[in-house]
Structures are given as C-alpha cells and as structure tokens.
Amino acid sequence: MLDGGPTGGQVLRRAIGGRRRHIAVASLLGMTHQACEVMVPVVIGVVIDEAVTTGSFDALLARLGLLAALFLVLSTCYRTAARITDGAGEHAAHRIRTELGTKVLDPRGGADTGRLPGALTAVATGDAERVGAVAAALSYGISAVAGLAVSAVVLLRISVPLGLLILLGVPPLLWIGHRISRPLERRSEVEQERAAHASGVAADLVAGLRVLKGIGAEQAAVSRYRRTSQDSLAAALRAARSRAWHDGAILALTGVFIAVIGLVGAHLAMQGEISIGDLVAAVGLAQFLLGPFQLLTYVSGEFAQGRASADRIAEVLAAPPAVPGGTATPPRPVTGALRLRGVTCGALRGTDLDIGAGTLLGVVARDPAAASDLLLCLGRELDPAEGTVELDGVPLSSLAPAEVRGAILVAHHDADLFESSLLDNVLAGRDGGPVDVGPALTASAADEVAQALPQGVETMLTERGRSLSGGQRQRVALARALAADPPVLVVHDPTTAVDTVTESRIAARLSELRRGRTTILVTTSPALLAVTDRVVVIDDGAVTADSRHPDLVADDASYRSVVLA
C-alpha cells in the first residue's frame, strides 16, 4: 500500500463507521428478532409441559397468545432491521463511490494511471457494492451472535451440559470459519481484478469501434476480448468454487454441531434429567441454531469478498497524484503570456518558446508525441522532468492544478461529448451563470450542427456523442472550448474531420472571436495556420522554426511537406 493513502482495512472501517448509528439500530432490532426466535421453541416446550400434558385449555390459550405476540414482534423487527440494514449498505457504497469520484476527478490526476476507464468503473460499482455489503452484513453478524448467546443462556437454564456445549463449541466453529474464508478472500480479489480488466478492455474496444472497423481489425479485437473474458471467467469460476466449498464446509460443521446438541438432549431426556417439553425446546433450539450459523457463514463470505474489494479501492484512493499541488496564485487578471525554458518532457527535449499575451500561435509538431507532451505540460497534467513553463512569469509547477486549468484550457483532439443535450455539452466548460453561447456556436460552425438536429441545441446526444458524425462532434467540442472563454486556450487538431470550406470559415471566425486573448492552435491545417500571428515548428523535441505561415510555406521545404502534403 502506498504511503499517504488508506489501507483496505481503513476503507472497511470508514464504510462501517459512516453508518454506525444505523447499524447499531439494525443490530438492536436484529437481536430482538433473534431473541424472539429463540423463545418460540421454549414456549412450545412450555405448552407441552403445562397445557398438553395437563390438559389445561386455559393454559393452552395463554401460551398460544404468547406465541402470537412473539411472532408479531419478531416479524416487525425483521422487516424494520432489513430495511435499515440494506439502506446502510447502499449509503456506505454511495459514500465510497463519491470518494472514488472525487479521487478520479482530482485536478492533480493520478487515479487513472495504469488503469483503463472501464476498470475504474468496475471498482466504483462492483467493489463499492461489496464493501457496502459488509456494512449491511455487520448487523446480521451481531444479531446471529446474539441469537447464539441467548440460545446458550436458555439451554443453560434447561440443562447445564447443553448450555456449556454451545458456549464451548461456538468459538472453535467461528475460528474454523474464519480460516476457511481466507482462500475465498484471495480468489475474490483476483476475480474482481480480472473482471475490472475485462470491463476496461470492453469499454476501450467499444470506444474505438469505428476505427477498428475502418482498419478491418474486428477479428483481432474479438480475439483480444475473448482472451480477456476467458481469464475473467476462469477467475470467477475459481471464486465460485471457493465460495461453494466455504459455504458447504461451514454448513457441514454446523450440521454436525447441531446433531450433537440433539443427541445430548435426547440422552438427557431418556435419563429423566429434562422433561419432554424441555427436550422439544432443546431440539427446536438446535434447529434454530442453523439460522444464526447460516448468517455467520454469509457474513464471513461477505467480509472475505469485502476485504478483497476494499484493498482494490484503497489502491485507487492511495494512488499518488500525477502532479503535486501548489500554493502560488497567478496574477489577476491573467494576461496569458507563456514562456517555456529548457522543457524536457517525453518527446520534448530542451524546448524554449515565448508566447506573448494575446498572441494567436500555431504549433506544428512533426512528431505527434511531441504535440501531446506539449499539451500535457501546458495543462499541467504533467510537470516537465527539466525546465519550466511559466504563465505571466509564474511557474506552473508552483500553481495548484485547478488554478492552472482555470487560466489555461487545453482542448485535446480526442475530447468526448456527454450523454446530454448539445447545449449542455457546450456549457460544460462554464462554472455557471447565464452565458451567450451564440458566438461560440457560430465560430465553431456548431450552429449548423444544431440546425440539422430535430430539437436544435436541445437535442439529446447519445453516449460520447455517437449520434453525430465525426466532424459534427469536433465542432461541438470546439464550441465547448470557446464558450469557456479562458484567458489561454490551447486547441489540438480541432478540424481534422471537417470539410475544407467549413474549416476555412471556422479559422476566420475563431481568429475573430479570440482576438486579444492568447490562443495556441496545435495543428497542421493550412487554413488554421493561415490566420495565426506566427507559427513555431517543433522537430526532434525542440523549436526549429519560428515565423509567419506564408513565409514558412515559401522558405521551408520540410514545413511544406508536413502542412501541405
């Protein structure tokens, strides 16, 4: 477990502690239910001794009335306890999902490092549900122990040997049950890990379905998912076999224990040490004990699986941030002047670059990795291994990531849309309050997209905007970035799926809308580069050219090969 994060045990304790009062109330009701269950065979034994044997009709009616009251109380307690218990489990799972969501959305990042989105979803759903189930199971376990304790006391009153048999026999059974649950815990952890990976692979393949079809890689994708799914199935079957063996072994031990209680009770009745009514009560209690033991079996299994899931949740919560926090604040207002000095990060090698406030800059990177690393540094999703990136003279590394994102908006090429209306997608980059999205829609040509939809900007989009074409999605994503109206806007290849006529209109309107505010276009589009104030070329990780687009087209053959090819 990484330093600074919770352990699996702490995740479990926090889940339980957050619903402590509800669990206590449910446990109290459950104990009352179990106590009433215990008294049912006892009262039946009394009916036999005091009513059936003596032939007293009045005693029979009185004892039957007592039985009816017992059933009324135990049924009411059971229903109420079950409702509170299930609610406690759901609230505990919800709290864990909220913590995981906060971690994943932390501006410093880190939670998604080495994890597919689908795997994180599996942790936030399946694993959170299992930990929540532990909070629900706890009250059942307490109730079961209370039932065993009350049974032991009652049996001690009937017969000391029978009471001692339970008091001395239950602890070893509980210890054996704990030992038996250990393989289940290990296999449950593997099962959840494989299931999460399979979910992540499936989500990854679905997201890239059009690309896979375009390159004819459907069969390879199916084979990849089949292998992953088979691994997940094998792990799930091993966990199921372990659960079956665990439950079967516990029930077998319980059956033997109950049979011993029945045999001892029968022997005592034959010796005349207890009455027939006491024997009936003892046998009834022995049968009743099957319920608490089954509950303890269930609770043991839930705790075993919950511990495995808690460890997986703790790994996500304890993941170190991709970038540390910061205490400095940018100057107010942000003018948008950027400076890179000796920046080394991934494909960037000692990059130096000055971007004046209000500049519309084009960046052409021969290596796509260099463009990606530049965006990560500007958005402070990564800090350079060497060198500094400054905003208005303040190093980004000294600013909190949230402060950086508030000043510099990086719109990645593969930005997704949400399952919401077109208007909601465009407004997603705003903090709130009324805003006129008309200029952003016009500049990005997303107004034409809205006009083609049945309900205009109120039209609901499907997941990731798949109901739109690639070019339409790009225009809506660009509108979202423009509507946010940040001091510094960095856009990566916003028009690769747009026709040339529309692209030219977007270039002109974008230039006009962003006039006076720093804008960086990382692209090889001639139409976009033509409206920039200047263009820098990054080759082999460093800036190799810095001039206006027409001059570079005229004088730089390598530039022409990249931009005009």
Automatic annotation (TrEMBL):
<dbReference type="GO" id="GO:0005886">
    <property type="term" value="C:plasma membrane"/>
</dbReference>
<feature type="transmembrane region" description="Helical">
    <location>
        <begin position="60"/>
        <end position="78"/>
    </location>
</feature>
<keyword id="KW-1133">Transmembrane helix</keyword>
<keyword id="KW-0067">ATP-binding</keyword>
<dbReference type="InterPro" id="IPR036640">
    <property type="entry name" value="ABC1_TM_sf"/>
</dbReference>
<dbReference type="Pfam" id="PF00664">
    <property type="entry name" value="ABC_membrane"/>
</dbReference>
<feature type="domain" description="ABC transporter">
    <location>
        <begin position="332"/>
        <end position="565"/>
    </location>
</feature>
<protein>
    <submittedName>
        <fullName>ABC transporter protein, ATP-binding component</fullName>
    </submittedName>
</protein>
<dbReference type="InterPro" id="IPR003439">
    <property type="entry name" value="ABC_transporter-like_ATP-bd"/>
</dbReference>
<dbReference type="InterPro" id="IPR039421">
    <property type="entry name" value="Type_1_exporter"/>
</dbReference>
<dbReference type="InterPro" id="IPR017871">
    <property type="entry name" value="ABC_transporter-like_CS"/>
</dbReference>
<dbReference type="GO" id="GO:0015421">
    <property type="term" value="F:ABC-type oligopeptide transporter activity"/>
</dbReference>
<dbReference type="Pfam" id="PF00005">
    <property type="entry name" value="ABC_tran"/>
</dbReference>
<dbReference type="GO" id="GO:0016887">
    <property type="term" value="F:ATP hydrolysis activity"/>
</dbReference>
<feature type="transmembrane region" description="Helical">
    <location>
        <begin position="23"/>
        <end position="48"/>
    </location>
</feature>
<feature type="domain" description="ABC transmembrane type-1">
    <location>
        <begin position="24"/>
        <end position="305"/>
    </location>
</feature>
<keyword id="KW-0547">Nucleotide-binding</keyword>
<dbReference type="GO" id="GO:0005524">
    <property type="term" value="F:ATP binding"/>
</dbReference>
<feature type="transmembrane region" description="Helical">
    <location>
        <begin position="248"/>
        <end position="270"/>
    </location>
</feature>
<feature type="transmembrane region" description="Helical">
    <location>
        <begin position="131"/>
        <end position="152"/>
    </location>
</feature>
<feature type="transmembrane region" description="Helical">
    <location>
        <begin position="158"/>
        <end position="177"/>
    </location>
</feature>
<dbReference type="InterPro" id="IPR027417">
    <property type="entry name" value="P-loop_NTPase"/>
</dbReference>
<dbReference type="InterPro" id="IPR011527">
    <property type="entry name" value="ABC1_TM_dom"/>
</dbReference>
<keyword id="KW-0472">Membrane</keyword>
<keyword id="KW-0812">Transmembrane</keyword>
